[in-house]
């Protein structure tokens, strides 16, 4: 499963681990991805989304209908 949120479009970021001696090694910051299933009344079916923790909060605030409409509007397959 790729570390990508379908709602917030968050993907991995890159940076460095920095030791006490200031040695820098590459590292990757992954978003907190969860697989969640929601029932969407307009589609009359369940939809499984890969969401970050922030994406779950966005759905709680805006509602699943508005979020699914935005995902479909940008051409992403659900």
From TrEMBL:
Gene: rpmB
Protein name as catalogued: Large ribosomal subunit protein bL28
PANTHER family per UniProt: 39S RIBOSOMAL PROTEIN L28, MITOCHONDRIAL, LARGE RIBOSOMAL SUBUNIT PROTEIN BL28M
Keyword Ribonucleoprotein (UniProt): yes
Top-level lineage group: Bacteria
Stored Pfam families: Ribosomal_L28 (PF00830)
Keywords: Ribonucleoprotein, Ribosomal protein
Family per record: Belongs to the bacterial ribosomal protein bL28 family.
SUPFAM superfamilies found in the cross-reference section: L28p-like (SSF143800)
GO biological process, one term: translation
NCBIfam families: L28
Membrane-crossing residue ranges in chain numbering: none
Gene Ontology molecular functions: structural constituent of ribosome
InterPro entries according to UniProt: Ribosomal_bL28, Ribosomal_bL28/bL31-like_sf, Ribosomal_bL28_bact-type, Ribosomal_bL28_sf
GO CC annotation: ribonucleoprotein complex; ribosome
